[in-house]
Amino acid sequence: MKKSELIATIADRGGYKKKDAEKMLNLFTEIVAENLAKGEKVTVSGFGIFSISERAARDVVNPNTKKISHIEARKSPVFRASKVLKETVNSK
Q: How many CA atoms lie within 13 A of 38 on its CB side?
């Protein structure tokens, strides 16, 4: 499902205009991103947890050239599905 299809589904099921559904979805993603940037978790009951994983700096080897490259430490967003979501996915 693409973003436009998700917006259409939200609008249809919720009885909203597509424009309003798009605003809600964009606001949700913006709020999640802002809180992750602050280092905070975002928990949506029955859906899952958005959090940050810290990855250490490391050296990697290109198998073709055998050249060693350094990758800086970074933060990566992580999503962990809730038990309810996992059960829903596996029941169908």
A: 9
pLDDT for residue 81:
96
DSSP-assigned beta bridge partners for residue 4: none
Q: Report pTM.
A: 0.78
Alpha helix positions (H), 1-92? 3-14, 18-37, 83-91
Burial readout 68-77 (b: 16 or more C-beta within 10 A, e: otherwise): eeeeeeeeee
* Percent of the chain that is helix, strand, coil (3-state, to 5): 45, 30, 25
Q: Alpha-carbon distance 68 to 36, whole Å? A: 31
